[in-house]
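Sequence design from tokenized structure. All designs in this work follow the same two-part layout: the structure record, then the generated sequence. An example of the structure record is given first.
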């Protein structure tokens, strides 16, 4: 016997209806991972198990410059004191070999006058190396060994002075000190600009001295897996900016908005607003240029993780013209305003351009409605003010009203009078 068919069609049954309901994409919670570049520009990277430590000693000057200040000052002090003590021992040995330390010696030629103990030899070593002469201790021409030690100490002292003072100068004039006045916006934004979905940040320079030949580079860092199964924990992908396409450098006179158009070649092409919240990408921004006053190349860095990228926002204008001078209000440097932006990825907007057109039309209508409400509110306020002034005028002019005049005419057949006003 054949099975009886259901009265309700299959497409309207429970399984069919469930299959037709659009399912929301399910994303896993984003694991808190360490960022590659900190907000202040420092690299969050630890070097471990370096076996060839001797390579750092092959470049002593760079090693000294890279050290922290407390270690540099300790090495600076230790080097000078050690050299003074070493040559103090040399002067004491010269005096001892020549017999200058004999307390019973009355007459004769001394190698160094008034050097009769190790303390006096240490003081003479300091006087020789730092070129301070107090007149009590001096070398004589009768001792060739003392002249040789004097020449050696002068040469060694000059080398130590050159290295240590040069190291301190380089530490005080490092290029990263200039980068402290190069600022980035706290958040990055994604919004529609020139009918294209764009990733934007704002950069600025607090000093009046300019950065010559400033360039901005953007990189997206994320963990990727190749088709062969190789895991790349830090995969750096270059991101093209409008400034790099238009010219080779930036004229960083006032704060600028760096814009990256999210197109087919962008690593953000398949990223929607919902996927952005769960992604583990990090956008690194690198600003390079030459300091105008010193001629030293400087570099400022920062990064933006997914929590620091605001979808559907735009930076507020901060440059205004006041009395013939352009003024920059840095209190609004990182302020953003919400704008109408479709929550779809750039790929979906390219496949369905009508979504972007409808969003822009809705934003235009809402903008016009807000303008109408604002104008109506202003009109009502002006009418209220105008109504109050007219009532005041009527109240003030009430005392100037024309008085009523009565005209009396004799009535027929009586003495009654009719009043006509």
């Amino acid at each position: 016997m054949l099975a009886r068919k259901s009265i309700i069609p299959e497409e309207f049954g429970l399984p069919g209806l469930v299959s037709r309901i659009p399912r929301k994409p399910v994303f896993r919670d984003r694991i808190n991972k360490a960022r590659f570049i900190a907000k202040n520009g420092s690299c969050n990277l630890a070097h471990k198990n370096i076996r060839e430590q001797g390579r750092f000693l092959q470049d002593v000057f760079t090693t000294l410059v890279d050290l922290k200040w407390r270690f540099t000052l300790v090495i600076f002090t230790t080097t000078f004191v050690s050299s003074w003590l070493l040559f103090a021992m040399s002067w004491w040995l010269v005096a001892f070999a020549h017999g200058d330390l004999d307390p019973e010696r009355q007459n004769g030629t001394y190698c160094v006058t008034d050097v009769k103990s190790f303390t006096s030899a240490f003081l003479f070593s300091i006087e020789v190396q730092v070129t301070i002469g107090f007149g009590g201790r001096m070398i004589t021409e009768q001792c060739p060994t003392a002249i040789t030690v004097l020449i050696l100490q002068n040469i060694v002292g000059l080398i130590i002075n050159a290295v240590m003072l040069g190291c301190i100068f380089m530490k005080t004039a490092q290029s990263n000190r200039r980068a402290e006045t190069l600022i980035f916006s706290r958040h990055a934004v994604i919004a529609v600009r020139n009918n294209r979905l764009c990733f934007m940040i704002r950069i600025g320079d607090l000093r009046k001295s300019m950065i010559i030949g400033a360039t901005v580079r953007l990189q997206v860092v994320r963990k990727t897996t190749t088709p062969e199964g190789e895991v790349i924990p830090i995969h750096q992908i270059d991101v093209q900016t409008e400034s790099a396409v238009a010219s080779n450098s930036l004229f960083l006179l006032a704060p600028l908005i760096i814009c990256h158009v999210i197109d087919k070649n962008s690593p953000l092409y398949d990223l929607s607003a919902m996927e952005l919240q769960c992604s583990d990408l990090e956008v690194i921004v690198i600003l390079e240029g030459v300091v105008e006053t010193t001629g030293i190349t400087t570099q400022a860095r920062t990064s933006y993780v997914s929590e620091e990228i605001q979808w559907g926002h735009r930076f507020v204008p901060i440059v205004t013209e006041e009395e013939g001078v352009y003024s920059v209000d840095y209190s609004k440097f990182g302020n953003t305003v919400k704008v109408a932006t479709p929550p779809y990825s750039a790929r979906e907007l390219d496949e369905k351009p009508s979504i972007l057109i409808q969003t822009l039309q809705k934003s235009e209508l809402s903008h016009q409605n807000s303008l109408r409400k604002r104008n109506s509110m202003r009109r009502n306020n002006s009418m209220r003010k105008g109504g109050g002034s007219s009532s005041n005028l009527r109240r003030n002019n009430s005392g100037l009203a024309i008085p009523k005049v009565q005209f009396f005419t004799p009535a027929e057949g009586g003495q009654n009078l009719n009043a006509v006003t």
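The longest helix spans residues 353-397. We note this feature because it recurs in several other targets discussed in the main text.
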